[in-house]
Amino acid sequence: MEALRILLNLVWLVLAGVWMAIGYVIAGVICCVLIVTIPWGIASFRIALFTLWPFGQRLEKRADHGVGSTLGNVIWFVVAGWWLAIGHVFTAIALAVTIIGIPFAWANLKLIPVSLTPLGRRIVDVDDPRTFGVGPTTATTPIPGARREVPWYGR
C-alpha cells in the first residue's frame, strides 16, 4: 500500500502538485509580507506542503477551533481562498480530460474546502490510529504499534 501511495504522490507531483503548491506559496508569501496576516501565511504554507504530497494524508477539522478561526476564514475567503479554489477547479478539469487523470482530478476537487477555509484544520496521517479517536490518549488498552504521546518535558 505504501508503494502505491508513493507512486500516486509522484504522479500527482508532476501533474498538479507543483503548480498548486506554487499558488499556495505565493499566497503565503503575500500574507507574511503583511505582518497582520502571518497566521494565514502559515496556514497557506502548511497547505502547500499538503498539496505536494496528499496521498496518505487527510484533512480534519480541529476540535479547538473557534470564532477566531471562523472570522479568519471569512477574511481568507474574500482575499485569497476563492482564487485558489478556482485554480483547483481548472486543474481538475484539465486532469479529468484523460482517463488516467480522473483520480487526480477528484483529489484536486477534495482540496477545495481547505483552500476556502484553511484555519481550524489540521493535516493528519491516514495510518495514525489517533486520528480516528482511538489511541493511547483515549483507549483503555494499548494498541499494538501505536505511538505513545510523550510530554515535551519527558523527551
Oligomer class: single chain
Percent range for β-strand residues = 5-15%
Average pLDDT figure: 81
Order of helices and strands: HHEHHHE
Q: Count every helix, treating DSSP H or I runs of 4 or more residues as helices.
A: 5
Task: Indicate the radius of gyration in whole angstroms.
Answer: 17 Å
Straight-line N-to-C gap: 32 Å
Give the overall form. Answer: globular
Keywords:
single chain; 155 residues; mainly alpha; two-stranded antiparallel sheet; 6% strand; globular
Question: What would you say this structure looks like, in words?
Answer:
The structure is a single chain. With 155 residues, the chain is mainly alpha-helical. It has one domain. The chain is 59% helix and 6% strand. The chain has 5 helices and 2 strands, in the order ααβαααβ. Strands 1-2 form a two-stranded antiparallel ribbon. Helix 1 packs across helix 3. The longest helix has 32 residues. It is globular. About 6% of the residues have low confidence.
Task: Briefly summarize what is shown.
Helices cover 59% and strands 6% of the residues. With 155 residues, it is mostly helical.
